[in-house]
Design goal:
The complex is a heterodimer of chains A (about 500) and B (about 240). Chain A is of the alpha+beta class and about 500 residues long. Chain A folds into three domains: about 180 residues, no CATH class; about 270 residues, no CATH class; about 35 residues, no CATH class. Chain A is built from 16 helices and 23 strands. In chain A, the strands form eight sheets. Chain A has a six-stranded mixed β-barrel, surrounded by four helices. In chain A, strands 2-21 form a two-stranded antiparallel ribbon. A two-stranded antiparallel sheet of chain A has the order 5-6. In chain A, α1 runs antiparallel to α15, α11 packs parallel to α15 and α13 packs antiparallel against α15. The two termini of chain A are about 20 Å apart. Chain B has a domain of about 120 residues: P-loop containing nucleotide triphosphate hydrolases (Rossmann fold), CATH 3.40.50.300. Helix content of chain B is about 35%, strand content about 25%. In chain B, the strands form two sheets. Chain B has a six-stranded mixed β-sheet. In chain B, α5 links the parallel β7 and β8. The chains are: A alpha+beta (about 500), B alpha/beta (about 240). Chains A and B meet through α12 and α16 of A and α2 and α3 of B.
Chain lengths: ~500, ~240
C-alpha cells in the first residue's frame, strides 16, 4: 500500500512537471521568436515617424548600455500575390546592414544553404541540404542580407523584399517541419484562361505593393503602388508575423510613403495677384510666389535598440528614455518631446504583451486544471493511509500500551507520509525530467509504434515539442509533491492518535 | 512505595462499557492492594472484568467517575487516575510493563527491534540515540536469558508461540518496570511451553524484585502466585484457599 501512495505522488509530480516544462518551453520559444525581429527596446512614433533618427541612433550607440540601434518604418499596405490574391500586409522598411545586428533577422532567413538537417528531417528531404542547390541558396541568402535581387532581363540589381514564409501559401509545410516549395503558381485570366507564374518567390517571383502615402502632417495623400521583387523568405516562428509581413529596404518605404528627405517649400502669395513667373524646375509659367526652401529630413517610424550584453531590458528602456530626452532637446520643434514619447519607448515584452499574456494565462489554466487533478492525490494518499491505519490498529494499541503518546503516534504517520512523499517526489521529479528531456524521442516512438501523432509540425509552428526543465519549477513541484503526501497523512494520523488503546488492542 | 509496602492501590474502582445504547457494568467498586514484589493472580470467569482491571491499573483506561464517590488507582502513592494523558504515557513507559495473551509483537520488526521499541518510546528519538548501546545491551541480555540469543534477527512470524511470548516479556521488561501486568500470558500456549514461560517470569521476578499482577483463568497457574484474588460480580474476593 505505501508503494501505491508513492506511485500516486510520483505520477502527480511527474505530470505537473512535464506539463509545466512543456508549457514553459512553449512560452519561452514563442517569446524568443516574438523577439527575433524586434530587438530589446523599440522607440516608436507611428504613421508620420520622426526625423533626425540617425542622430538618435548615434547617441544611442555611443552609450555603453546599448549595443546597437536601427531605424525601421512599420506600416500597413496591400500586397498582390503571384496568384493575384490581394492581402493586407505589415510592411517593415529596414536598413539591412544594421537590422541584422539588432535583431535575429539573419537567423530567420529560410532559403539558405544548411549543413545539418532540421530535427525531424530524417530522410534529408530539405532542398536547402541539396549540394547542387548550394550555390543558388547562397545567392538567395546574400540577396536577403542586402535586400536586392539581380534582374537578368535588365541586367540591373534591384531593391527587393523578403516575405514571410507563409504569406504566399506556396510553401507547403511537411510533417518533417520543413518547407516544400512549389515551383509554379497559377493566376486566373479574365478570359477564363490560366497563366503559370513563378511560384518559388526568390527565383523570379515578385509582388505588387500598395501603400498610402502621408504628408508631413500625417494626412493621407495618394496610394502608391510598386512591384517588389522577392529576394528570399523568412520564418520568425510567430505564425501571425510569418503570414502577413513583408520586409523591404528602408529607402524604398521612405520614398513610397514620402518620408524621404525632401525640399521644404513655403508659399507666400504675391501682393499683385496677377504677377507671373517661370517655374525653374518645369520651365512653365505660374503665378508668382515667394519660396523659402529648406530640407525636410528623412523619417522613420521606429528605432529598434539592442541592449548591451548583461544589461537588463528594463534598464536599457530607462536609458533609452534619457537619451531620447537629450535628443528631443537638441531637435526641439522637429521631433516629438519626451512627454509625448513616454509611452512610445517600449520593451519587446510590452510589444508582445498580448501574445505572452495569452500563453501565460493558458499555462496558468492548464496548471490549475492539472493541479486540481493532482490534488486528488491528497485524497488517494488519505484513502491509502486510512486503510493502513485501520490495518495497523492493533500495532497502534501496542505502541500506546508501551507508552507512546498521542502526538508520537500522529507524528509517526506524518513522518511516514513525509518519507513516502519524499521518495515519490524524487522519483516523480526524475521521471518528469527524463520524459521532458526525451519528449521528442518518446513522441516519435509513439508515432512509429502506435501511429499516434500529438505534435504535428504542419499544425504547430515549432518543429519539435518545446520543453525546458526549470530548476525553480522542479523545486516547487517537488515540494508540492511532498506536501501532498503529508497533507494526505494528516487525517489518518489524527485518527490513529485518537484511537482508544484498549479498543485498539482488542481489534480483530 | 507506601509505608505498608503497597505499590499499587485500587480503591472503589468502577467501570462501565457502553455498547450502543446499552450500558454494561463490568467492575462494581473494586478494592485491591498490591504489595511490592508480590505476585498476584487474578482469577475470574470470562467477561468478569479481569483484563479491564489490568488495563485500569496499567493506565491504558480510566475508571468511571461517580458523583459522591471517590475512586482511585495509585502507584507508589501517586494517583494515576488524575494524571494527564502525557503523564499517563510516561507511567506506562517507565513504571509498568504489559504482557498480552496474543503477544502483540510488531510483525515488521525483528526480535531485537521489537524489544528495543519500548526503549525508543521511553527515551524518545534523541534519547534513544544516546542510550542505544545500553538499551540494545539490555535487550540482548534479556533475550539471551530467555533463550533467544540466536534469534535476534528473526521476525515474529519465524518464531514459535513460546518464543514470541518470551520476546513480548523481554519487551515488557526492557525499561525495568516496577510492575509487570500480564494478561493470560500462557493462555495461547501448550502446558509445557506455558510452564516454561512462567518459569522464565518467575526467575526474573525473583532476581529483580518485580511486582506482578497476572490475569488467568487457570487455577493451576494461579497456584504458583503469592496471592490469588477472584473477580466475582465485578468485585474482588480474596481466595485464601489457593
Amino acid at each position: 500500500m505505501p508503494i501505491l501512495a508513492m506511485l500516486a505522488v510520483m505520477l502527480s509530480v511527474a505530470t505537473i512537471l512535464i506539463t509545466w516544462s512543456v508549457m514553459g518551453g512553449f512560452l519561452k520559444t514563442l517569446v524568443n521568436s516574438g523577439r527575433s525581429l524586434v530587438g530589446d527596446v523599440v522607440i516608436t512614433w507611428p504613421n508620420v515617424g520622426f526625423a533626425h533618427y540617425e542622430d538618435l541612433i548615434e547617441r544611442l550607440e555611443a552609450d555603453p548600455m546599448i549595443e546597437g540601434a536601427t531605424p525601421i518604418i512599420e506600416t500597413f499596405g496591400l500586397v498582390q500575390l503571384p496568384d493575384d490574391r490581394i492581402e493586407l500586409i505589415t510592411i517593415k522598411g529596414i536598413d539591412p546592414s544594421s537590422y541584422g545586428t539588432v535583431t535575429n533577422y539573419n537567423d530567420t532567413i529560410w532559403w539558405k544553404p544548411i549543413e545539418e538537417p532540421t530535427p525531424k528531417d530524417r530522410d534529408r528531404s530539405d532542398v536547402r541540404l541539396d549540394p547542387e542547390l548550394r550555390e543558388i541558396m547562397s545567392v538567395f541568402e546574400s540577396n536577403a542580407n542586402t535586400l536586392t535581387r539581380f534582374d537578368p532581363a535588365s541586367g540591373e540589381t534591384q531593391d527587393a523584399g523578403v516575405l514571410g514564409v507563409e504569406v504566399t501559401g506556396l510553401n507547403i509545410r511537411t510533417e518533417d517541419g520543413i518547407y516544400d516549395p512549389r515551383t509554379t503558381a497559377f493566376r486566373a485570366l479574365p478570359d477564363g484562361g490560366i497563366e503559370r507564374v513563378p511560384g518559388f518567390m526568390p527565383s523570379g517571383g515578385s509582388v505588387g505593393l500598395t501603400v498610402l502615402a502621408l504628408d508631413s502632417k500625417g494626412r493621407p495623400v495618394d496610394p502608391v503602388t510598386r512591384t517588389i521583387p522577392i529576394a528570399n523568405e523568412f520564418q520568425s516562428g510567430i505564425y501571425e508575423v510569418d503570414t502577413s509581413t513583408l520586409i523591404v529596404p528602408l529607402g524604398v518605404m521612405q520614398r513610397m510613403l514620402r518620408m524621404d528627405e525632401a525640399r521644404r517649400v513655403e508659399i507666400v502669395e504675391s501682393e499683385n495677384p496677377f504677377e507671373m513667373e517661370r517655374d525653374p524646375d518645369t520651365g512653365e509659367m505660374r503665378p508668382k510666389r515667394r519660396e523659402i526652401v529648406g530640407v525636410d529630413p528623412a523619417r522613420a517610424t521606429n528605432v529598434l535598440v539592442k541592449a548591451a550584453k548583461g544589461v537588463q531590458v528594463d534598464d536599457a528602456q530607462a536609458r533609452c528614455k534619457e537619451i531620447y530626452a537629450e535628443f528631443a532637446a537638441a531637435h526641439r520643434g522637429d521631433v516629438p518631446g519626451p512627454m509625448q514619447m513616454e509611452n512610445q519607448i517600449r520593451t519587446w515584452e510590452d510589444l508582445n504583451a498580448t501574445m505572452i499574456n495569452a500563453v501565460k494565462k493558458e499555462t496558468g489554466l492548464v496548471l490549475f486544471v492539472f493541479g486540481i487533478v493532482s490534488f486528488t492525490t491528497v485524497f488517494l494518499v488519505l484513502a491509502i493511509f486510512w486503510s493502513m491505519a485501520s490495518e495497523k490498529t492493533k500495532d497502534i494499541g501496542i505502541l500506546r500500551a508501551l507508552g507512546a503518546s498521542t502526538g508520537g503516534i500522529a507524528w509517526l504517520w506524518i513522518r511516514y507520509g513525509t518519507v513516502i512523499g519524499l521518495i515519490g517526489a524524487v522519483f516523480g521529479t526524475a521521471l518528469g525530467y527524463v520524459i521532458v528531456s526525451n519528449i521528442n524521442a518518446i513522441h516519435d516512438w509513439l508515432g512509429r509504434t502506435f501511429g499516434l501523432t500529438i505534435w504535428d509540425p504542419r499544425q504547430y509552428y515549432f518543429i519539435e515539442i518545446p520543453s525546458e526543465v526549470d530548476l525553480s519549477k522542479a523545486i516547487i513541484v517537488f515540494i508540492v509533491g511532498v506536501l501532498t503526501c503529508v497533507l494526505g497523512s494528516l487525517l489518518p494520523a489524527w485518527r490513529s492518535a485518537k484511537m482508544d488503546p484498549v479498543k485498539a488492542l482488542r481489534f480483530e | 512505595m507506601s509505608e505498608t509496602g503497597t505499590i499499587l492501590n485500587v480503591t472503589n474502582v468502577r467501570k462501565t462499557y457502553t455498547l450502543g445504547r446499552v450500558k454494561v457494568p463490568v467492575l462494581h467498586g473494586v478494592d485491591l492492594d498490591v504489595r511490592a514484589g508480590e505476585w498476584i493472580a487474578v482469577l475470574g470467569a470470562s467477561g468478569s472484568g479481569k483484563s479491564t482491571l489490568l488495563h485500569l491499573m496499567g493506565g491504558l483506561d480510566r475508571p468511571d467517575r461517580v458523583k459522591g464517590e471517590r475512586a482511585s488507582i495509585s502507584f507508589m502513592d501517586r494517583e494515576i487516575t488524575s494524571l494527564g494523558s502525557h503523564a499517563l504515557d510516561k507511567y506506562r513507559a517507565r513504571d509498568v510493563g504489559f504482557v498480552f495473551q496474543f503477544y502483540h509483537l510488531l510483525p515488521e520488526l525483528d526480535v531485537m527491534s521489537n524489544v528495543c521499541v519500548g526503549g525508543m518510546i521511553r527515551h524518545g528519538r534523541l534519547g534513544y540515540r544516546t542510550n542505544r548501546k545500553s538499551i540494545q545491551g539490555r535487550a540482548s541480555e534479556l533475550l539471551g536469558r530467555f533463550g533467544l540469543g540466536d534469534r535476534l534477527g528473526h521476525r515474529p512470524a519465524e518464531l514459535s508461540g513460546g518464543e514470541r511470548q518470551r520476546v513480548a516479556i523481554a519487551r515488557a521488561l526492557i525499561n525495568e518496570p516496577r510492575v509487570l501486568l500480564a494478561d493470560e500470558p500462557t493462555g495461547n500456549l501448550d502446558q509445557k511451553t506455558g510452564d516454561s514461560i512462567l518459569d522464565t517470569i518467575s526467575e526474573h521476578r525473583a532476581s529483580a524484585g518485580l511486582t506482578m499482577v497476572m490475569v488467568t483463568h487457570d487455577e493451576r497457574i494461579a497456584a504458583r502466585a503469592d496471592r490469588v484474588i477472584r473477580l466475582v460480580d465485578g468485585r474482588v474476593q480474596e481466595d485464601p484457599g489457593l
